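Dear Dr. H.,

I hope your travels went smoothly. While you were away I took the liberty of generating a structure for the chain from your last submission, since the lab meeting agenda had it listed for discussion. I wanted you to have the full record in hand beforehand rather than looking at slides cold. The sequence, exactly as received, is reproduced here:
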Amino acid sequence: MSVIGLRPAMPADSEFCFELHKAAMGDYVTAVWGWDEHAQRDYHTRGFDPDQWQIITADGADIGMLNVEYRATEIYLARIEIHPDHQGRGIGTHLITALLSEADQLRQDLVLHVLAVNHRAYALYRRLGLRETARHGDNDIKITMRYPRPPG
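The corresponding predicted structure, in token form, is as follows:
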């Protein structure tokens, strides 16, 4: 496996993150809402936050992004995107497993949302122990998943 790292995002990473989103999530966005380049770019511009986002690296190359929010009672995985050329290599598993360990140590739940059409991500989250807790949005397009805090 590659050496996986995280580095803080910088304003100059905005275009990389937009192109990454298009590559990693474009098919899913298209399936649910249809891909509108202008609308997607506006959404990205409003949401891109280099103070919150991290860039995922593999052997020093930028290959993805991660946004984790630490809340009072839970860790919220707001976004994880890995370029399709690097998917299926255990990188997402590695990063999410680290978050699960952190959630255990902090005695908090890990929570995330996944698009219902993203069967591959849903299967990964289930395999890692997250459970579906709700569906929401038009036609239940988003699934809330939760890894419950350990008892005690």
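Two observations you may find useful: The first strand starts at residue 4 and ends at 8. The longest helix spans residues 14-32.

With kind regards,
E. W.
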